[in-house]
Batch of 3 targets.
Target 1
Amino acid sequence: MLRRALLKRCPLCGAGRLFTGWFRMKERCPGCGYRFEREEGFFLGAYVINLAIAQGMVILLAVVPLIVRLAGDPDASIAPFIVGGVIGAVVAPMIFYPWSKTIWSAFDLMLRPVSVEEPADKR
Ligand SMILES: [Zn+2]
């Protein structure tokens, strides 16, 4: 399931074309009809994944390089590290957005498999 999600595919059946645009996910899988938003607020988990990615990218692109650079030269400019921080905080989450949704769907399906109690969501 996680491998399918990493390929931006349906974690349940592996079908592709889940997005109509970079930021717009279809309501249901075109392959199996699985409804991605299983409950209201479902994609809060995707937001958390994306936030963690953004924080990690800021640490990798700005904080750690800044510490290393300032340790060697305390008078060095911090401008490149600010640019790195903006890339990590703003650009990286936008790039990673579709994967955050498919990965969250995969995590949710691993923890809560589709059950008979939600037959309307299976099509
Ligand atoms: Zn599917």
Note: The mean pLDDT is 92.
Target 2
Amino acid sequence: MNPMDLATYGKNTWCPGCGNFSILSAIRSVLAELDGQMQSIENVVLVSGIGCHAKIVDLMNVNSFYSIHGRVLPVATAIKLANPDLTVICFSGDGDSLAEGLDHLVFAAKRNIDVTLILHDNRVYGLTTGQFTPTSPLGFKGKSTPNGSFEHPLNPPELMLASGATYIARGYTHGIGLLQKLFREAILHKGFSFVDVLQVCVSYNNLYEAYNKRTYELKDHDASSYEEAQKVIRSWNYDGSDVPIPLGKFYEADARRLDQAYRGSMPNALDRDNSISELLENFI
Ligand SMILES: Cc1ncc(C[n+]2csc(CCOP(=O)(O)OP(=O)(O)O)c2C)c(N)n1
Ligand code: SF4
Ligand SMILES: [Mg+2]
């Protein structure tokens, strides 16, 4: 399959220079490559939230569900539990999954549900034109913080490590080769996989210069060690300090998954021989 086989005639309204173009290109090539290797593209479902990031599903000729702001993971969880044979990939924003949808993100990691979440982390509300988000740096000046934000940013990979995610990585939209590698690994990983993508929003939070100067790719990092992962993740706290920013796979582990456990203990929801009353009997 050719990556352009996954293109649509949808109108692309992203600003010229937006980092979302790299995410789109990377996911198209990875899914085209995995088609047939992993399973057919017909068994892949994309789920998005609401924001500039979410428009990606309009541009992908793949089954998709355009959900509502903050609720990408409840929809993805339901799809995976109803049909565990599907590969479910979520596209979410930093506002989407770290503000309104934060509890869903923590619980998806805690449950280790076998879905992938790609976070378009532009560290701003892009679609609503420039308000600060949980990953905006201290002092960020935007529409809702004209005098600068007073809050310290969250460190999403650290939150994911503490919550139980079993694949955690960070990419940057100026490094498409690494993005492809991380997307491929995350999709093939069995369990909750989280890829934080430093996605530059050229219109409201243009961090190209800082990221080009400070990002580096991890070498000789032991991703099987929780302690090593914690150390490298904590080496940059999304603040404005001039420290190097590591990119790559931080952590990968094998652990019990919700979809596995659920399938073992509940009748298959897709089996038409199971009547609703039979299913409900499990809860009495
Ligand atoms: C339930 C609900 N709450 C709030 C909004 C308003 N809203 C739409 S997009 C958005 C912010 C998007 O920011 P982010 O998730 O970071 O995505 P980006 O646009 O930066 O890709 C908000 C607050 C909404 N549409 N629905
Ligand atoms: S507002 Fe920002 S995130 Fe949205 S399309 Fe434009 S550059 Fe991209
Ligand atoms: Mg955003």
Note: The chain has a mean pLDDT of 94.
Target 3
Amino acid sequence: MVIERTPLEDELGDVLDKALQHAGLTATSLAERAQVNLSKIRDAIDYRYDLNGGELSRLSRVLGLNEVGFCALAGGNYPLPEILGLPFCLFPLRMPHGIGVANAYVVADCSKQTGLLFDAGSTPAALRRVWPTRIRQIEAAFITHPETEHMGGLSEVREFFGAPPVFAPRGGQVAGATAVSDGTILEFSGFSVEVLATPGHVEAHNSYVVRSRTAASGPGLLLSGDLFFAGSIGGAFFCREKLKSSLRRLFNRLPPETVVAPGHGPLTTVGHELRYNPFVAF
Ligand SMILES: [Fe+2]
């Protein structure tokens, strides 16, 4: 399996913008508190960067961000971990959507042609273009949250694979899907999938933890949807407080070696994001 180094979902400007909202501050009040020129902050939010180390440090402190990760992001060198030891094959499916890229994933026993699908990409055509040739059947599909970029290819999956069961968050109104609630554990051949309700980005949002039922060791895999990414978090379109408490809950309960497959950007691990993610400074 090859895991490519895909770009981060968010850069410094996005992180500053989200951090301002979470801190309940305006750019003006941040400038006063952090003693940083207001125009420099506004420029940074517009992706024009001219902030020095001292200014970045003060901004991260006022915004309650992880300073190491925030400064690394500002320097364009946010670290990413090696992804090692997963006891199954993981196929990241990266599909263009607007100006960005949305991820879906297939998880499969490396000796089999059947897998589980997590999210369904932006469009049927996009999903077809990146589909792993080895995977001939889907045992079930899971939707993290009902946004087009994450379920636009679902009709294709249903048509092509003989309507496998689809599981989606409660309240997500995904036609034909079974709503699954927090704490549910579903068993498949070789895998268990634990459902964790993680509202915040949107109200109906699930994350899923996949574990091997046959391997004696190896980390689990968290499909985090748009709750968080390597180096950032999803926009809190539903509720900032709920997003924070969903994050806190996941990071408190999952072991650090857990591999994270987010809805955008590269793979990471729970331990790595605990160490560097600007927003995971609990
Ligand atoms: Fe998304």
Note: The chain has ten helices and 14 strands.
